[in-house]
Design brief:
single chain, alpha+beta, Outer membrane efflux proteins (OEP), four-stranded antiparallel β-sheet, 9 helices, 4 strands, 60% helix
């Protein structure tokens, strides 16, 4: 009785032992690389860096500019941009690879059925045709097989872990590319709207200069002004008209870039001029510390480290033997009529052990290569974090500088407008020459365009800051 109990417990012990062995996995378990980061940013109080959280919802950050047409353009980009479609397809490939490596953990079942017709000669040259024909035989085979590789050393699990890390990195790459293209479109759109305003400014200036030229010509005919004043007025008018023409091709370039980002041919897209420039988003004084965590490029770099770490385990598992179990069974007969019958059955079952005994250092070299790949990805991750910190600092400083400059520019513009008004009145009263008017008008126009350039710089810098923060400065929802 005791022997019978032991015989029944033996298979259970073997199965339990295999399960315990399968629980181990060679190679290092993944830990996020350490990264020394500052407690806060220089340019914004209350900032600190933390753990990447790129999967958190960021919202439609471009809506902060309050332009419905811009919202529609970005929505079209999300649907139709071909580069985004490429990265989405790459992510689906990575997911398929994860499913494939997960399936390798389970047994596989195969089925086959065949018919073979073979002949063997009698070896006698005088044999009759009938006797030769009697050597032809038909064989019918059907087989069902099951095979399973026992993942004793974790090679398959490390492979799955590596593919999962690569898939997560691919997802982050997709998000990073989408964010980058959204940024390009928003910047192009904002700069195009500033150009629209510059065109209106230059057109109004051309009209003003045309009236000044007419006035100067009338004064010349009346003998009040000389021919030099007329020449100066014409020069000023033509130069401004040339600047206005130059803006036309600049606007066309931005419009064509927006069309391609939306997945359209430039000939099939046009953007009408607008009478207003989108508003500059209001940047909060105290930015929450979780924002930099959402940068997809940082997440992609960190998950590449995860995949490289698992690759070390895959390489180390090659030192150990592969154990697989296989079982097959079926029917084989020379007659189709009684093919599937008990006398024609056959079966086989057994383990298979395979191990490389000598490879002249190939496995060792592969482990060293994977360790070097891991070290490379760690360095890339840390550099990406440093680049992210620098970009946020740069754009915060740039926005602050532009804000201070905008105040001074507005003051200079107000003074230039007042000076132009007084100079024009003095010229009409005959108190000063036209050269003074030309100089004052040129100064006023320069200040008008400088103020628009500062506004354009502030808008572009705000987009860059949003991208540097991973897509907005709204606080992430509470979990």
């Amino acid at each position: 009785m005791i022997r019978a109990s032991r015989s029944r417990l033996a298979p259970l012990a073997v199965a339990l032992g295999c399960g315990l062995l399968a629980a181990c996995a060679v190679g290092p378990d993944y830990q996020r690389p350490s990264m020394a980061t500052p407690a806060q940013f220089k340019q914004a109080e209350g900032w600190s860096a933390a753990t990447p959280a790129d999967t958190r919802s960021k919202g439609d950050w471009w809506t902060s500019y309050g332009d419905p047409q811009l919202d529609a353009l970005v929505d079209e980009l999300n649907r139709s941009n071909q580069t985004v479609a490429q990265y989405e397809a790459q992510y689906r490939q990575a997911l398929a690879l994860v499913r494939s490596s997960r399936g390798a953990l389970f047994p596989s079942v195969d089925f086959s059925a065949s018919k073979n017709r073979a002949a063997q000669g009698s070896g006698s040259s005088g044999s009759s045709l009938s006797s030769a024909s009697s050597g032809i035989r038909d064989t019918y085979n059907t087989q069902l097989g099951v095979s399973w590789e026992l993942d004793l050393w974790g090679r398959l699990r490390r492979t799955l872990e590596a593919n999962q890390g690569s898939a997560q990195a691919s997802l982050a790459d997709w998000a990073n590319m989408r964010l980058s293209l959204q940024s390009q479109l928003v910047q192009n759109y904002l700069q195009l709207r500033v150009l629209d305003e510059q065109k209106r400014l230059l057109q109004a200036t051309v009209d003003t200069y045309q009236r000044s030229l007419t006035l100067t010509q009338n004064q010349y005919r009346a003998g009040v002004s000389g021919p030099d004043a007329v020449a100066q007025a014409q020069t000023q008018l033509k130069s401004t008209q040339a600047d206005l023409i130059d803006l036309t091709w600049q606007r066309a370039q931005f419009e064509n870039a927006i069309a391609v980002l939306m997945g359209k041919a430039p000939a099939d897209f046009s953007l009408a001029e607008s009478q207003a420039i989108p508003g500059l988003p209001s940047i909060p004084v105290g930015l929450p510390s979780q924002l930099l965590e959402r940068r997809p490029d940082i997440a992609a770099a960190e998950r590449s480290v995860m995949a490289a770490n698992a690759g070390i385990g895959v390489a180390k598992a090659a030192y150990f033997p592969d154990l697989s179990l296989s079982m097959s069974g079926g029917y084989s007969s020379s007659s189709f009529a009684n093919w599937v019958s008990l006398p024609n059955r056959y079966w086989s079952v057994g383990p298979s052990l395979a191990m490389t005994l000598f490879d002249a250092g190939q496995r060792s070299a592969e482990v060293q290569r994977n360790v070097a790949v891991y070290d490379q990805t760690v360095a890339q991750y840390r550099q990406t974090v440093l680049d992210g910190l620098r970009e946020v600092e740069d754009y915060l400083a740039q926005l602050k500088t532009y804000q201070d400059e905008a105040v001074v520019r507005e003051q200079a513009l107000a003074a230039a407008r007042e000076s132009l008004r007084l100079t024009t009145n003095q010229y009409r009263a005959g108190l000063i020459g036209y050269l003074d008017v030309v100089t004052t008008q040129a100064t006023a126009l320069s200040n008008e365009r400088s103020a628009l350039n500062v506004l354009q710089g502030r808008l572009v810098a705000s987009v860059n800051l949003i991208v540097a923060l991973g897509g907005g400065w709204q606080a992430p929802p509470a979990e």
